[in-house]
Every structure is written in structure tokens, then in C-alpha cells.
Specification:
Number of helices: 11
Number of strands: 13
Oligomer: single chain
Structural class: alpha/beta
Length: about 280
């Protein structure tokens, strides 16, 4: 069986890596007034942060069902199955779009996968799946391995301005008001597929230190891990953080990712995060 791997643009996998691993991407949209941009193709993360400085905060939307159907039908010409990996169903209808679309195509079996997370940690799932698919591993085995990885996946992030999350409906007005009033830099994470506060911390420096401590607790056993530093237009800060962590944890493979246009709309510039999961043995 020949298996294709699909993810959506919020995985923020670098283009060269997507092409190398033969990963197909379906874009989410960011909307400035009447202008609709497909993220990662029409607008890059750096362009997005430039745009939001001079325009009103945009809105976002999931891919239309027809776009999924078109992609799956095109893949059916060459593949027997497709694993479609998407951002958490608790913050977007994209995963459900893949589920619905899977019933509308013939000639290919679609296996939707809810990453229950987003950004490059979501990308890790797609990259691992693509690696196994290229080796001809059975699709059911790959799906089981993805579920195994999910048990080890973690991500924590902090935002500079809670109003973005509040306006996007990802955080209540009361939480945003209290957080802003107290100058809190809350640590957030995914729980039961939605973004919720993990801890309230008063300063940016302390928040990042807390993320490092949580990470250190997970990787202290010496197992092989992959981790990503995720930034919202703070590339230099992300580089410094990665260099510091890489010197401390030689058992971890580090990379740098970013909060692109869609996720950046809800978190705002200056946000920082970190995600990680175990590396499974090669099949």
C-alpha cells in the first residue's frame, strides 16, 4: 500500500523539508478586511507581522471542504491511502473538514488524525508519518505509532498580549482582563484539545524559565527527544534559547519554528513557546 501524508499550513514545516519528505499541505486562511491570504503560500510569517502593524487584526478560516476533496482525489491517482494530520479539533474545524471530506472521495482511504496541538509539534507527527510511509510501513501501523507519540507530546507557550486570544475566542474576557491588569505572562498549553492557562507567571523571563524546567523534567531520563523553539517574530531570541538548551541536553534534537499567520493572529507578536516529543525507534 502506498500512503500519502497530508497536513495543514499550521504545522509550519519549512517548505524544503515538506518537499523533501513529500508532505502535502492544505492551507488555512488569514483575512484582512476583504483580502484573503492562504498562509504559507500567499503570506509568510514575517510578512504577516509586518501587515498587522498597520492594519486591523485579521480573522482566520479553515479550508473549505472542496479543497480537501480536490486534494484527496488528486492523490488517489497515485496513492492507496492518505494520513491527514491536522491542528487540534478543539480550536479549529480543519480536522472535521478532513473527516467529512474522507466520506466524499472514492479510490483512496483517508485516515484523519487529530494532533490535538498545532505548529511544529503538529509538524513532527507529519514528518514521522512521512518517514515511515516512505519505508512502506502499513498505514494502520503508522496510525498506531502516531497515537504512541501523542502520549509524549507537550507544548507550553506564553503571550505578551492576552487581547489577541480573547478577541479570537480562545480565552475568556475575564481571564484576559485580569491577566492584563496584573501584567501576568500566563503559561498556556493544550488540555483536552483546547488552549487553557497552565500557570500564571508575572514576568516574561520567569515564564520562559518555567518552560525550561518543565522540559527538563521530561527529558531528564536521557531518552531521545525532538524539540522546537517557537517564536512570534522573535527569531534572535529563539536562536539564543535554542543554543542555551542544546548545550544542556545533548539527547535532544532542537529546531526553531514559528507562529505563522493563522496562529499568530490569535497569540500576537512576541509570543514564545516550546514543544517536544520522544523520538521513536526506526521501524
Amino acid at each position: 500500500m502506498k500512503t500519502a501524508i497530508v497536513t495543514d499550513s499550521t504545522a509550519y514545516i519549512p517548505k524544503e523539508l515538506r518537499e523533501h519528505r513529500n508532505i502535502h499541505t492544505i492551507p488555512l486562511n488569514v483575512i484582512f478586511g476583504n483580502e484573503v491570504y492562504q498562509e504559507e503560500s500567499d503570506i509568510t510569517w514575517s510578512q504577516f507581522y509586518e501587515e498587522v502593524r498597520t492594519k486591523e487584526l485579521p480573522t482566520t478560516s479553515q479550508p473549505p471542504i472542496g479543497q480537501f476533496v480536490e486534494l484527496f482525489e488528486w492523490l488517489s491517482k497515485e496513492y492507496d491511502a492518505v494520513i491527514s494530520i491536522h491542528l487540534s479539533s478543539g480550536i479549529s474545524g480543519t480536522y472535521q473538514g478532513a473527516v467529512t471530506s474522507s466520506t466524499m472521495v472514492e479510490g483512496i482511504k483517508v485516515y484523519p488524525f487529530d494532533s490535538e496541538i498545532s505548529c511544529m509539534v503538529q509538524g513532527f507527527y507529519a514528518l514521522e508519518a512521512a518517514k515511515w510511509a516512505s519505508k512502506g510501513v502499513d498505514v494502520e501501523v503508522i496510525m498506531a505509532r502516531l497515537e504512541e507519540l501523542k502520549k509524549t507530546a507537550r507544548a507550553y507557550f506564553m503571550v505578551d498580549d492576552l487581547s489577541h486570544l480573547q478577541r479570537g475566542g480562545r480565552l475568556s474576557s475575564a481571564q484576559a482582563f485580569i491577566g492584563s491588569l496584573l501584567q501576568v505572562k500566563p503559561l498556556l498549553h493544550f488540555e483536552n484539545k483546547v488552549i487553557v492557562p497552565f500557570e500564571k507567571i508575572r514576568t516574561r523571563k520567569k515564564a520562559m524559565k518555567r518552560i525550561m524546567d518543565l522540559f527538563g523534567e521530561d527529558v531528564a531520563n536521557g531518552s531521545a527527544y525532538q524539540a522546537v523553539i517557537i517564536h512570534a517574530n522573535r527569531e534572535e531570541e529563539a536562536e539564543e534559547w535554542r543554543n542555551e538548551l542544546a548545550a544542556m541536553y545533548p539527547n535532544v534534537e532542537f529546531s526553531i519554528g514559528y507562529f505563522g499567520a493563522v496562529i499568530g493572529t490569535h497569540l500576537g507578536e512576541g509570543s514564545m513557546g516550546m514543544g517536544w516529543m520522544k523520538k521513536l525507534d526506526v521501524i
